[in-house]
Amino acid sequence: MVTRYLLLSLFIDAKDHSTSKGPHERAIVHIDIDCFHAQVEMIKDPELKTKPLGIKQKNLVVTCNYVARELGVQKVMCIKEAIQICPQIVLVCGEDLTDYREASYKVTRILEEFSPLVERLGFDENFIDVTSLVHSHQRTDIIGNGAESLISGHIYLEGSGALPEPCSCGCYSRLQEASHIAQEIRNRIYQELGLTTCAGIAHNKLLAKLVCGSHKPNQQTTLFPQHVGHLLKSLNTVKDIPGIGSAMYKNLSEMNINLVGGLQLCDLSSLEETVGSDQARRLKNLSFGVDETPVVLSGKPQSHSLEDTFRKCSTVSECRQRLGLLLQRLIKRSTYDSSSLQSIQLVSVTPYLFLPVMCLQLLVAHLMTFRHLRICCNICYDESGAVCKSFF
Q1: Which residue, 42, 53, 294, 391, shows the most beta carbons closer than 10 Å to its own?
Q2: Beta bridge partners of 119
Q3: Taking Cα atoms as reference points, which of 367, 355, 370 lies closest to residue 378?
Q4: Nearest CA among 331, 358, 325 for reference residue 344
Q5: What is the distance between the alpha carbons of residues 31 and 118, in angstroms, rounded to a whole number?
Q6: pLDDT tens per residue across span 274-328
């Protein structure tokens, strides 16, 4: 093996846009593509639809289709364990993200036809603020004894007899309309791309994301404000609240706060002493389902990165071929996103000087048309991070 890894990044300009509304005024839809990577592969090869399919990256099954899940395979499972559980599993290498990226952006472009306020979360999730669209053609239906029939998809706690009560702010009729918009969005995604999705509909991002997982796959759920408390208390731990990561969860655990109810009852001053005043107020709000963060336009990515471990690569000619392919993929991604190239950076962790020098030669050959481009080469010789920087 010639090198541990090589990383190329293109840095581009991006703008940030945001908007904000009050507590119940918004209508937010969270779109989650079902077993996204597996679906992309099943569309490429329809014969995989009836087989247990896993997408592997390095030594992990990063995701799998529902056939595999029914047989016991789980996401982020070691390949060895997955094969033991399901010997007939079909494993497809998912280290080349090109097809997944293109499918993801196609979904986002469909969402942008409904509203300009679309926020991407990785490849398979998006928030979309449909508040303006709801106001433009809000239904005249009045929520009442037939409430469940006026909603497209499921209502959180449906069938429990706990029908939503009227709210003076009008959020119930807005969420009704948003459920129909969500259904239309999901239909478009399936008709045009063949991808099934789930959706959560609520008055803020936190709740839309949480309720999205209530009915899977290929279904949607609407959450009314009356049922927010029940949804939050149904979570296993506070770590299940989006926005509370491992480090914060560790801090809360040291305070003996593991359940959402415990966070709700925790004295604010005690919380402030541990995590600071701003974080304490944010955590309190999250525990009660309060989230006023806007749907932020994702815009163009600020950088593109590709890497290669150069496994089974032992000759200079093989290195040159792999580097050329890496550059072509990187330039294709930048062109696909209509990015304005500003600089390109090469990072090589290797004891072999010829590799980054060869790559620089290929860079010059491929990028002669980008006269303004600044190229930076970082060569790391050892694990301690000793770096030699050169600018061209």
Answers
A1: 53
A2: 127
A3: 355
A4: 331
A5: 10
A6: 999 999 999 999 999 999 999 998 766 666 666 666 667 777 777 777 777 777 7
